[in-house]
Amino acid sequence: MEFEELRQLFRDVFPGSSPPECCRAPGRVNLIGEHTDYNGLPVLPMAIAQEIRLAFQPRDDGRITLSNVNPAFPTVAFQNAPKIPASAAGSWENYCKAAVQGVNAALRPARLAGMDVLVSSTLPMAAGLSSSSALVVACAMAYLRAVGVRLGDDLSRLALAELLADAEHYVGTRGGGMDQAVILNAVEGNACKIDFFPLRMENAPLPDGCAIAVCDSTVKVNKSGEALHRYNAGPRLCALATALVRRQLHEDFGEEVELDRLGDLWFGPLCLTHAEAEELCMRAVDKPRMTLAAIAARLGCPPEAVRTRWLGDLPEPPDGFPIQARVRHQLTEYRRVEMARDALLAGDAESFGALMNASHESCAHDFEISSPELDALVEAARDAGALGARLTGAGFGGATVSLIYEEDAGAFIPAVTEQYYRQFLRRTGTPPIFIAQPGPGADYVA
Q: Phi, psi at residue 385, to the nearest 5°?
């Protein structure tokens, strides 16, 4: 839906309203660097043309009403407050609540304004393209207008990205800050290497003549619903790995060493090399799998304390938790992101593609976030001539991303369609594939 049409529909949905303002927030596709951001390690995503679009108008009574062009999302309303009660898990309004409550907590506006909001989207939902974070960003931008905060003047885009990364924990997912950072700060024509704590960004263009093919596996994963448990297993085991490394450092030095996340091994007071970090981590987690009892003994605390602080309701596998493999993914993926940035800056498409392939293998085997469908789709993309292909996003379902030569797009799409959608899925119809170029970040629309 074009913005002029969205504005007109807003006045139909909210009779008697004045002409609304509009904003847009793009989706993103992560090229490499999966499940590393919450560990303080870099990622390399890009914004895409598909986006969330909002028409909105402030209200003085603190009431926030959300309507959606898509009838699958019911109109809902809630009252703005310092602490906004969450709706049931999976409810779409929770993403707006997360944005509003996050802004309230961080900025403490003089008044808790309301707003009427109409949402439209060209982003496929639950496809690993960050439709949820795009909605959070768009709602936050609308709410900033409602409380009189000027983005870029009163609040920087980097600051808003950090604010919203924390705010999105409201919906229950324990992610990092990649999605919000690239959605708000992307530069057209460039992918973004993003580092964290503090947040900083470096632009890198795709190699000449190359494009990104995004292929939807059609396996839908609702991170705020039934898949929340699987998604949060990654951050929880990484936090536990950090505790084990911190314990190893205490044994090595005889005193406590500050270590909040795995990335602090490189960027904190230790400033380790890759080789030093790897050696330390493998000593701290020296067995492929660790039982809860073994972890508790290593940390010197009761198993109940380990579960309360780090594991929550994460069930213990019969043969123990695969913490070593999770750490190995962090160590190797960090290196891949750094080399991928260098490959982009050098215009080296083949090296970048090889790194994408290696990343998928690590995501599938060490972090265990792939699925039979994603593996089959990656194989189909490589057979169709992709220089590199990998899953993208949280995993378990969603999309894959492939680096291809632009001139090969005409042959790539039918080849993947035949091998994956028709032969593997036994599905007919138009394949959910699109060719993406790096797009600009979120903004207001005149």
A: 110, 5
Closest C-alpha among 168, 230, 151 to residue 37? 168
Average pLDDT, the chain: 95
Q: In this model, does residue 221 exceed pLDDT 80?
A: no
The DSSP string of 145-164 is HHTT--BTTTB-HHHHHHHH
The DSSP call for residue 417 is: I
DSSP code, position 120: E
Q: How far apart are CA 398 and CA 227, in angstroms?
A: 12
Q: Does the pLDDT value for residue 223 go beyond 90?
A: no
Of 6, 25, 5, 8, nearest to 444 (Cα)?
A: 25
Active site residues: 179
ω before 198 within 30° of 0 (cis)? yes
- Structure confidence by residue, pLDDT tens digits, 10-51: 999 999 999 999 999 999 999 999 999 999 999 999 999 999
Taking residues 104-110, report their average pLDDT: 96
Domains in the chain and their CATH numbers?
3-204+439-445 (3.30.230.10)
How many beta carbons lie within 10 A of that of residue 300, not counting itself? 9
Q: Hey, what are 263's tokens?
A: 């990335």
Q: What secondary structure does DSSP assign to 313-351, as a single string?
A: TPPPPTT-B-HHHHHHHHHHHHHHHHHHHHHHHTT-HHH
Which residues, in sequence order, are bridge partners of residue 35?
Answer: none
pTM: predicted TM-score of the whole model, two decimal places? 0.91
